[in-house]
Design brief:
The protein is mainly α and 169 residues long. The protein contains 8 helices and no strands.
């Protein structure tokens, strides 16, 4: 039987793969290099957040929780970005990856998206643009059917279903 072609499925799958490629690129240099994780790159980012753009309520979290555990947090960020990217590119566990992507974007937004006190409301949205665009993509993956096209998950589900039926007989 001929599969029905749906432009929305194709568009969402394309967006999923493109966002996934971004996150593979973001994560791979951190995982396979040592500048970010071992040689202080992560700490430099956190210190720049503290100096330039963290929301006031986020500063104690960065100073008292993140910096004292910087190496662990660096590895979590690096491997987290890589795993989010791989999941999106492959089309497997897309919704789970999107949930973690939203969490990561929220942390980054709170750490680096503060435009300062007493500014116009639109400045808050402008300061969060780099985080909110990816967050919007992740929300679309949660709401839509991101694994309806060009995804590994449906194939794995079919294979598992066939194996379970064979095993029952």
């Amino acid at each position: 039987m001929q599969a029905r072609y749906d432009r929305n499925d194709t568009a969402l799958a394309t967006l999923r793969i493109v966002v996934g490629i971004f996150f593979v690129l973001f994560g791979q240099y951190k995982v396979f290099g040592t500048d970010f994780t071992v040689h202080g790159g992560f700490e430099q980012w956190v210190r720049s957040f503290l100096a330039e753009g963290a929301y006031p309520w986020m500063k104690p979290v960065l100073e008292q929780v993140i910096l004292p555990h910087a190496r662990v947090c660096a590895f979590m960020a690096a491997y987290g970005e890589l795993m989010i990217g791989v999941a999106l590119v492959l089309g497997a566990l897309t919704r789970t990856a999107s949930g973690f992507g939203i969490l990561l974007m929220a942390i980054l937004w709170a750490s680096d998206g503060y435009p300062g006190p007493h500014v116009a409301l639109w400045r808050y949205f402008g300061a969060s643009l780099q985080w909110s665009v990816f967050t919007s993509c992740f929300i679309a993956f949660l709401i839509g059917a991101p694994e309806a096209r060009w995804a590994l998950a449906p194939r794995l589900r079919r294979r598992l279903s066939v194996q379970q039926q064979t095993h029952r007989q």
